[in-house]
Design brief:
- The protein is α+β, with helices and mostly antiparallel strands.
- It has three domains: 247 residues, Immunoglobulin-like, CATH 2.60.40; 380 residues, von Willebrand factor, type A domain (Rossmann fold); 86 residues, no CATH class.
- The chain is built from 14 helices and 32 strands.
- About 9% of the residues have low confidence.
- It comes from Blautia hominis.
- This is VWA domain-containing protein.
């Protein structure tokens, strides 16, 4: 028996590290994902695109579409992390497809508060965006749905239908003073509605409906607008006979009713004043407006925000047989334009409740103070409180939460390929959160990201020094409509160094984000408790694969991630996925430099798609797969006591962990018992249990062989002893 004085041993760096312990070093030099050295990149990717070069085809070159990284922390029990980051590949349709686009436009008070030009700039950007779409394909068809308390519904015969009873105050800001917005090119029916007017409005919506009939917006077409509605075949604009007829047949009957409205200048062919000009559709005024310019200029304004109502009407249109030209989800799109503020929704339990002259307040107020109001969006409350409540009350927390939840729910129906079957984009204009309110600005942005088809389909136009950031973001957003996005198909194979470590059952986890939104696996439940660590104000998209111990076999972890980024992705998308699991050192795992995986057997296998037919969206994964190898994480395991057993065919050469020896030949064994503490250690009994793979199996084994009794090992020392016997 021999004795050695050693510290916690060092397994040996680089090529000194024996192959059976884990291979050669390829250690990650940094633990900061923001640094390039954290990642191993796929380098150049070359794919074929039949739509390239105007349909003649060609190879596309991309750089670093996949990045991977692997690390480990801990000691004898460690946590291993594998990070995967994927970016898309962009292909071309040829010829560019025609699209069916529905713009859902927020026309509420917050879009024009404080003298803001948000609404005017949004209208200008809308005009330019439609023109840009027609430049790509003149067969693209546009529908515009404004929304406030409810949606203004485009009618096939022209004009916008509205729930007039819910519009009592829609006209309140119809003035050229204050915000300088006014009911541009619309009818101004006085100013504020007074309490004495309420009974007439509550008994009949006629006065409001009659006012609407005098507004120019009801004479334009907002339903399935075609290029040929605005331009001649040679590209020259058609004359706006709608405006001409309106001025002659409606405005001329009672010009004094429009006092203070911009349309006076139009009727008299006068230039707009410097105060009015910024709210026109062009910096040089209206004189050269096309029909498209004027119909968007004429879109009315409202109060309060019911995003759900606007999205619902878009859903209804796409569910209408014959509305869209194609069933291809990539050719059907909804673009929501909003500042995201002060959302309310209809209380579904009281959606048909209307105030009557004999109603009492308790019919409409919350049952519990601070609880949901029964009427929520519509002006359906009793007379004594109607004016003050609608003028001063902000949406309650419960109302706001319900409103955004229901907006998300209808967007899910819109995005479902088996339902509304449309892509949803969101242009946020100076997104803000209601104050006071349950959400921050970032919360609202996150919710808007989940309303969109994918997080990168949200674009926010904010003050950035640009003259018109709205059109800039709309242009970026529209580009995603006109490209075909592909993803890498990725499978992870991670081979644990089973000579030293075992996988800890039940420890495999997966998490990830795409475009700033946290993801969950397909079978994971929603987390609805705000106090839970992983709670989010939005519902996480279920895009990650389910993982469990079923993904682990013989120390090899295999996870098929599918397409990364997860479809539908945009040209700006990025997906980040993390796999985590725990490993536990075996008796032979000790040292300060232990490899946790097998080099050459831990990699991401990926394949790229090609686009083989120029005029459709099918991508073909026929390219051969590639392998991208992970780094080799190293941990330090210094247990208090270690026991190692080595074998050989002679007493002088017992250095092997495993060895093939013919039957009936003597095998020579060496056992090394290490004490890495600062005090002497006594071992009453050392034995081995044949066939036992775990300590639990060894304890209950009936086939034991005693190796030593009453063995004492001094502090920071190793004692060795040998024995031999013939093989069976």
């Amino acid at each position: 028996m021999s004795e050695n004085k050693i510290p916690c041993p060092f397994q040996g760096p680089g090529q000194q590290n024996p192959e059976f312990i884990g291979g050669y070093d390829m250690i990650r030099p940094t633990d900061d994902p923001r640094e390039s050295d954290y990642w191993i990149s796929s380098g150049e990717t070359v794919v074929y695109d039949a739509g390239e070069n105007m349909g003649s085809g060609g190879n596309l070159h991309f750089s670093d579409r996949l990045r991977i990284s692997k690390g480990a922390v801990g000691g004898c029990t460690g946590t291993v992390t594998l990070d995967i980051e994927g970016n898309p590949l962009m292909y071309s349709y040829y010829p560019p497809h025609s699209l069916d686009i529905i713009f859902v436009l927020d026309v509420t008070a917050s879009m024009m508060s404080g003298g803001s030009r948000k609404m005017a700039l949004a209208k200008r950007a809308l005009i330019q965006t439609i023109e840009m779409l027609w430049q790509k394909n003149r067969e693209t068809v546009i529908t515009i749905i404004p929304f406030a308390r409810d949606a203004y519904i485009p009618q096939p015969e022209g004009g916008l239908s509205y729930n007039y009873l819910g519009t009592l105050f829609t006209w309140r800001r119809s003035t050229t003073g204050g915000n300088m917005i006014g009911q541009i090119l619309g009818y101004r029916n006085g100013s504020y509605v007074s309490a004495t007017d309420i009974p007439a409005y509550m008994q009949s919506s006629g006065p409001i409906a009659a006012s609407a009939e005098l507004s120019l917006y009801n004479y334009y077409n907002y339903y399935k607008i075609r290029y040929s509605d605005i331009y001649n075949a040679d590209g020259s604009p058609k004359p706006d006979t709608v405006l001409e007829d309106y001025l002659a047949s409606v405005y001329a009957q009672d010009p004094q009713a429009y006092t203070g409205n911009f349309i006076e200048a139009v009727a008299d062919n006068r230039e707009l004043t410097p105060a009015q000009l910024p709210y026109s559709m062009h910096d040089n005024g209206y004189q050269n407006n096309t029909i498209l310019d004027n119909l968007i200029w004429a879109i009315p304004y409202g109060e309060d925000t019911n995003t759900e109502a606007g999205l619902m009407e878009a859903y209804n249109f796409f569910k209408t047989p014959g509305f869209a030209q194609s069933e291809d989800i990539l050719r059907r799109a909804v673009i929501l334009i909003t500042d995201g503020q002060a959302n309310r929704s209809v209380n579904p339990a009281y959606s048909q409740i209307y105030a009557q002259p004999d109603s009492v307040d308790s019919d409409f107020f919350p049952d519990i103070p601070g609880g949901p109001w029964r009427y929520f969006m519509y002006l359906q409350q009793t007379l004594p409180n109607l004016i003050s409540e609608i003028g001063n009350r902000s949406a309650t927390y419960d109302e706001l939460i319900l409103a955004l939840q229901r907006a998300w729910q209808i967007s899910e129906k819109l995005k479902d390929s088996k339902d509304g079957n449309a892509s949803v984009f969101v242009l946020g204009i100076e997104i803000g959160a209601q104050t006071p309110g349950p959400y921050t600005k970032e919360d609202v942005l996150d919710i808007m990201r989940t309303i969109a088809t994918t997080g990168s389909y949200l674009h926010e136009a904010a003050e950035n020094g640009s003259e018109n950031p709205i059109i800039e973001e709309l242009e970026r957003l529209v580009k995603n409509l006109l490209v075909l996005t592909g993803s890498l198909r990725v499978t992870i194979t991670d081979t644990i160094n089973t000579a030293l470590f075992d996988y800890v059952p039940g420890s495999l986890r997966i998490s990830g984000t795409q475009d700033g939104i946290k993801l969950k696996s397909k079978s994971a439940p929603d987390i609805t408790d705000p106090s839970a660590p992983d709670y989010t104000v939005y519902q996480k998209p279920a895009l990650l694969p389910d993982v469990s111990d079923g993904n682990v076999a013989g120390g090899v972890i295999t996870v098929d991630l599918g397409a990364v980024p997860f479809p539908i992705a945009s040209s700006d998308s990025q997906a980040k996925v993390r796999l985590m699991y725990e490993i536990k050192g075996k008796g032979s795992a000790y040292g300060t430099h232990l490899h946790t995986d097998n080099d050459g057997e831990t990699y991401a296998s990926y394949s790229e798609p090609s686009h083989l037919t120029a005029d459709n969206s099918d991508l073909t994964y026929s390219n051969p797969p590639h392998s991208l190898y992970f780094q080799t994480p190293v941990v330090s395991c210094c247990p208090a006591y270690t026991v190692e057993k080595f074998v050989g065919i002679s007493p002088e050469n017992t250095k092997y962990k495993s060895l093939k020896i013919p039957a009936c030949q003597t095998a020579f064994y060496r056992v090394a018992v290490g004490n890495h503490t600062d005090s002497e250690a006594a071992f009453p009994l050392l034995y081995e249990a044949a066939g036992a793979a775990t300590l639990e199996e060894a304890i209950h084994s009936t086939d034991r062989r005693i190796l030593a009794e009453n063995l004492t090992v001094p502090a920071n020392s190793v004692r060795e002893f040998t024995f031999q016997y013939k093989t069976d």
